[in-house]
C-alpha cells in the first residue's frame, strides 16, 4: 500500500502549541521529532525541520525538557496547566472553573477536545497577560461527570444516532448497529457512552434501556429520572428482603424503650401524604410547663447496616418527589406501613422530648428510643381550621374524609397551645437573623391518567409553621447536644450568601425601588426579610424570591460544622425525616451510638457519606424541577388559544423570559418574534430597547402573551408577544 503524502506546510508555520499539547497528553513519555511528526501527520522535510526548530525553542524557554538526546518531555509543573471542571454553555462553548484561578477561562468549541459538561479536566490556559481575557484548551479528560444520557434514537441502515434534549450536550451519540438493542425508530432511550475515539466527531455508545415513545407521560417521567441517574423502581432482591423484615411490635422491644403510648399524640401532614414520619405529643406538667415530644419514625431499627436494603437506601440517599409520584428511598412496606406513624397504631419511634415553659424556653430535654400511639391524623387544612376558629368540629369541606367530625377538647387545646409556642419560637428565630423564604410552590390537580386539570399554589400557614418550628427545635437541639461533645456528627450547614450575587441582585431589585443593607451579616438578613415581606403578593414576588434564593449558598451535609446562616443556628442537623432522607438515618444511628457511650466515629468516612448525600439531594431537586416544568408545558399545550398576562422574569440578547401570573408557567418570547419594533438588548438596564419607539421591555413589566409552541421533550415553552399590559387590544 502506497504511503499517503502530506503537502508541505507554508513557510514559517509554528507547531509550538501542538507540540506542547502532544507532550502534555502523555506527560511521562518522551518524544522525538519523528514521533511528533507522525502524531501531526506530517512527513515532509520542511515540516520536520520546523518541528526540530520548535522543540529547541521550547526547550530553551524551559517549557519542555530534553530528557535524552533528541527526546523531549513536558516540564512536570507548569503554571499554565490547571485541573478543574467544565461548565458548558448552551452554545457549544464552555467555561473552565478551577479553585486555582480567580476567573473562569473561556473554552472555544474546537478546544473542548471531547470534554462534556461537569467533567474534571486538565486545561492549558492561553492569554494570561494583562488586558486579555484568558482562553484555554482541554488537554485531558481526567474524569467523566456522567456517561449515561437520555435521548431520541434515529436509526439508519447500519448505525444510529441518539440526540439529547439537554442544551449543554453539544454532540449526538453514535450507536453501532449491533448495540441498538430493541430500540425502534424515534424511541426515547438511555444510552451509555463506551468510547470516544480521537478522530471521531461523536462518542460511541450502546442502548441500555428503551424508555418509550416521546411525549407519552410515563416515558417523559422515566426519562427525567434516567437523565439524573435516579432509579424508577427497586431491584426485586431489595423488595424481597424488605418484605421479610419482622415489623411486629413486641413486648421485649417495648421494654427497652420509653413508653409514650398513653401521652396525647397526633400527626399533621399534607392531605395526600402516605408516609407520616413525625408526630407531636403534648402534656401539661404540674409545674405549669409543657412536655412536648417530637417523635420520629425509628427507621434505623428496621434498616440494619450491611444489608442490601441499607445499601440501596444509601445509594438513593433521598426520596424524589416528582409532580405526579414519589420515588421512595425505602420500599413501601417500610415507608408507608411499618415506619409510617399512622393513626391508632403502635409504632417504634426515636424521640426528642422537651420541657418547655410559657415563653417557649427549653427547660429540660431527653433523647432516645420510644414507643408511641397516634390518637389522630390531621391534614394541614384541618389543623389550620382549629387554629383559626378554635372550633372542635371539622366541617365536611375541610375534612380529609369528606365528612364532618368532632375533635377531642384535649387535642384542640394542645393544638392551640403548640401554635402559640411555635409563634414565639419563630419570632425569636427571626429576631436572631433567620431568613424566611415563603416562595410560591406550584402544584397541579391531576386526573386519574396524570393529566393536569388545573394549577394551584401551596401556601404555608400557621399549621405548617407549627410543625416546622418543632421540627427545627428537634434538629437544632440534637445537633447541639452532640456538637458540644466535640464528636463526629452529620450537620446540615449553610454558608453566608455570595456577596457578588447579592450585588447583582441589588442591581435588579433597584428597578423596583428595593434595596439591601450590606453593612454587616445581621443587616443583610434583616433587609432580606424586610424585602420578602414587602414584595409579598406583588407581581414581582416570584422573580425577587428566586433571585434571593439564588444569591444564597446551597445548604449541604458535612461533618464540619459552620452553622446554618439561613436559620441563624450555630448547630443544626437533620433528625426528623429518616423515611425520606438517609442523612437522618445516619444521625439516628450516631445519636444512639453516643447515648450508649460510644467513642467518636471516623470523620473522613462520614464526610464521604455527607458528600454523596448532598450530591443525590441535588440530582433529586433537578429531577423535581424538571417534572414541574414538564407538567407546566403539558398544561399549556391545552391552552394555546388563550391570552395570558405575564411578568418579564428575565432579559437576554435573544429574547425575554415571561412568567404567567395566574399559573407561574415560564416561557420565552424570542426577540425576532416581537414584531412591534426592532429591539436590541441593553445589558445595563436589563431591557430590550425599541429602535424606533425607544420603548423598553424590562424586568418586571407586565405583558400579554399567547403560547406559540409547547415542547414536551425539551420541556420548553415559547410565547408570542401580543402587547404591553397598558396597551388596548387593537
UniProtKB/TrEMBL annotation:
<dbReference type="InterPro" id="IPR003029">
    <property type="entry name" value="S1_domain"/>
</dbReference>
<dbReference type="InterPro" id="IPR050180">
    <property type="entry name" value="RNR_Ribonuclease"/>
</dbReference>
<dbReference type="InterPro" id="IPR040476">
    <property type="entry name" value="CSD2"/>
</dbReference>
<dbReference type="GO" id="GO:0006402">
    <property type="term" value="P:mRNA catabolic process"/>
</dbReference>
<protein>
    <recommendedName>
        <fullName>Ribonuclease R</fullName>
        <ecNumber>3.1.13.1</ecNumber>
    </recommendedName>
</protein>
<comment type="similarity">
    <text>Belongs to the RNR ribonuclease family. RNase R subfamily.</text>
</comment>
<dbReference type="GO" id="GO:0008859">
    <property type="term" value="F:exoribonuclease II activity"/>
</dbReference>
<dbReference type="InterPro" id="IPR022966">
    <property type="entry name" value="RNase_II/R_CS"/>
</dbReference>
<feature type="domain" description="S1 motif">
    <location>
        <begin position="641"/>
        <end position="722"/>
    </location>
</feature>
<dbReference type="Pfam" id="PF00575">
    <property type="entry name" value="S1"/>
</dbReference>
<dbReference type="GO" id="GO:0003723">
    <property type="term" value="F:RNA binding"/>
</dbReference>
<keyword id="KW-0269">Exonuclease</keyword>
<keyword id="KW-0540">Nuclease</keyword>
<dbReference type="Pfam" id="PF17876">
    <property type="entry name" value="CSD2"/>
</dbReference>
<dbReference type="InterPro" id="IPR001900">
    <property type="entry name" value="RNase_II/R"/>
</dbReference>
<dbReference type="InterPro" id="IPR013223">
    <property type="entry name" value="RNase_B_OB_dom"/>
</dbReference>
<comment type="function">
    <text>3'-5' exoribonuclease that releases 5'-nucleoside monophosphates and is involved in maturation of structured RNAs.</text>
</comment>
<dbReference type="Pfam" id="PF00773">
    <property type="entry name" value="RNB"/>
</dbReference>
<keyword id="KW-0378">Hydrolase</keyword>
<keyword id="KW-0963">Cytoplasm</keyword>
<dbReference type="InterPro" id="IPR011805">
    <property type="entry name" value="RNase_R"/>
</dbReference>
<dbReference type="Pfam" id="PF08206">
    <property type="entry name" value="OB_RNB"/>
</dbReference>
<dbReference type="InterPro" id="IPR004476">
    <property type="entry name" value="RNase_II/RNase_R"/>
</dbReference>
<dbReference type="GO" id="GO:0005829">
    <property type="term" value="C:cytosol"/>
</dbReference>
<dbReference type="InterPro" id="IPR012340">
    <property type="entry name" value="NA-bd_OB-fold"/>
</dbReference>
<keyword id="KW-0694">RNA-binding</keyword>
Amino acid at each position: 500500500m502506497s504511503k499517503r503524502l502530506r503537502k508541505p506546510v507554508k513557510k514559517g508555520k509554528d507547531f509550538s502549541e501542538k507540540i506542547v499539547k502532544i507532550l502534555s497528553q502523555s506527560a511521562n513519555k518522551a518524544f522525538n521529532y519523528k514521533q511528533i511528526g507522525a502524531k501531526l501527520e506530517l512527513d515532509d522535510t520542511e515540516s520536520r525541520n520546523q518541528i526540530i526548530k520548535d522543540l529547541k525553542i521550547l526547550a530553551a524557554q524551559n517549557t519542555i525538557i530534553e530528557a535524552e538526546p533528541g527526546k523531549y518531555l513536558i516540564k512536570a509543573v507548569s503554571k499554565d496547566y490547571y485541573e478543574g471542571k467544565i461548565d458548558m454553555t448552551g452554545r457549544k462553548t464552555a467555561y473552565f472553573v478551577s479553585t486555582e484561578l480567580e476567573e473562569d477561562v473561556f473554552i472555544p468549541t474546537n478546544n473542548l477536545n471531547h470534554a462534556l459538561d461537569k467533567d474534571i479536566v486538565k486545561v492549558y490556559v492561553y492569554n494570561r497577560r494583562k488586558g486579555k481575557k484568558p482562553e484555554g484548551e482541554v488537554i485531558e479528560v481526567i474524569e467523566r461527570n456522567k456517561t449515561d444520557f437520555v435521548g431520541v434514537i434515529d436509526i439508519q441502515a447500519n448505525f444510529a444516532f441518539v440526540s439529547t434534549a439537554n442544551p449543554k450536550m453539544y454532540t449526538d451519540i453514535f450507536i453501532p448497529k449491533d448495540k441498538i438493542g430493541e430500540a425502534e425508530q424515534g424511541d426515547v432511550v438511555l444510552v451509555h457512552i463506551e468510547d470516544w475515539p480521537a478522530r471521531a466527531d461523536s462518542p460511541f455508545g450502546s442502548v441500555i434501556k428503551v424508555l418509550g415513545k416521546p411525549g407519552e407521560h410515563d416515558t417523559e417521567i422515566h426519562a427525567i429520572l434516567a437523565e439524573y441517574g435516579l432509579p424508577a423502581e427497586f431491584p426485586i432482591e431489595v423488595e424481597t428482603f424488605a418484605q421479610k423484615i419482622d415489623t411486629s411490635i413486641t413486648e421485649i422491644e417495648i421494654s427497652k424503650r420509653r413508653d409514650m403510648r398513653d401521652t396525647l399524640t397526633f400527626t399533621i401532614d399534607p392531605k395526600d401524604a402516605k408516609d407520616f414520619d413525625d408526630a407531636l405529643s403534648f402534656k401539661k406538667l404540674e409545674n405549669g410547663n409543657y412536655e412536648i415530644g417530637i417523635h420520629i419514625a425509628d427507621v434505623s431499627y428496621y434498616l440494619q447496616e450491611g444489608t442490601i436494603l441499607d445499601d440501596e437506601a444509601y445509594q438513593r440517599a433521598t426520596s424524589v418527589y416528582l409532580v405526579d409520584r414519589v420515588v421512595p428511598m425505602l420500599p413501601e412496606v417500610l415507608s408507608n406501613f411499618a415506619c409510617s406513624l399512622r393513626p391508632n397504631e403502635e409504632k417504634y419511634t426515636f424521640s426528642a422530648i422537651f420541657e418547655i415553659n410559657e415563653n417557649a424556653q427549653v427547660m429540660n430535654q431527653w433523647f432516645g428510643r420510644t414507643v408511641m400511639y397516634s390518637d389522630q391524623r390531621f391534614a394541614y387544612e384541618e389543623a389550620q381550621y382549629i387554629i383559626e376558629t378554635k372550633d372542635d368540629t371539622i366541617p365536611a369541606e375541610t375534612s380529609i374524609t369528606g365528612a364532618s367530625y368532632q375533635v377531642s377538647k384535649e387535642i384542640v387545646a394542645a393544638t392551640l397551645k403548640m401554635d402559640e409556642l411555635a409563634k414565639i419560637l419563630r419570632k425569636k428565630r427571626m429576631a436572631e437573623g433567620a431568613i424566611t423564604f415563603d416562595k410560591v410552590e406550584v402544584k397541579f390537580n391531576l386526573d386519574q391518567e396524570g393529566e393536569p386539570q388545573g394549577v394551584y399554589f401551596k401556601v404555608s400557614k400557621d399549621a405548617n409553621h407549627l410543625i416546622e418550628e418543632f421540627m427545627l427545635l428537634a434538629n437544632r437541639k440534637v445537633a447541639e447536644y452532640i456538637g458540644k461533645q466535640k464528636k463526629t456528627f452529620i450537620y446540615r450547614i449553610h454558608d453566608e450568601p455570595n456577596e457578588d450575587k447579592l450585588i447583582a441582585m441589588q442591581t435588579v431589585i433597584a428597578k423596583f425601588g428595593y434595596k439591601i443593607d450590606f453593612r454587616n451579616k445581621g443587616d443583610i438578613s434583616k433587609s432580606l426579610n424586610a424585602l420578602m415581606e414587602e414584595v409579598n403578593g406583588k407581581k414581582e414576588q416570584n422573580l425577587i424570591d428566586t433571585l434571593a434564593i439564588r444569591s444564597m449558598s446551597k445548604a449541604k451535609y458535612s461533618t464540619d460544622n459552620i452553622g446554618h446562616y439561613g436559620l441563624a443556628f450555630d448547630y443544626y442537623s437533620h433528625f426528623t425525616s429518616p423515611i425520606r432522607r438517609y442523612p437522618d438515618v445516619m444521625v439516628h444511628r450516631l445519636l444512639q451510638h453516643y447515648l450508649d457511650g460510644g467513642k467518636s466515629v471516623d470523620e473522613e468516612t462520614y464526610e464521604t457519606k455527607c458528600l454523596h448525600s448532598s450530591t443525590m439531594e441535588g440530582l433529586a431537586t433537578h429531577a423535581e424541577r424538571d417534572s414541574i416544568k414538564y407538567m407546566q408545558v403539558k398544561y399549556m399545550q391545552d391552552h394555546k388559544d388563550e391570552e395570558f398576562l405575564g411578568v418579564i422574569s428575565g432579559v437576554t440578547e435573544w429574547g425575554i423570559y415571561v412568567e404567567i401570573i395566574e399559573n407561574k408557567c415560564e416561557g420565552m418570547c424570542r426577540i425576532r418574534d416581537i414584531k412591534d419594533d426592532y429591539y436590541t438588548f441593553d445589558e445595563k438596564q436589563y431591557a430590550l430597547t425599541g429602535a424606533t419607539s425607544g420603548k423598553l421591555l424590562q424586568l418586571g413589566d407586565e405583558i400579554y402573551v399567547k403560547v406559540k409552541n409547547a415542547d414536551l421533550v425539551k420541556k420548553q415553552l415559547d410565547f408570542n408577544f401580543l402587547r404591553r399590559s397598558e396597551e388596548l387590544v387593537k
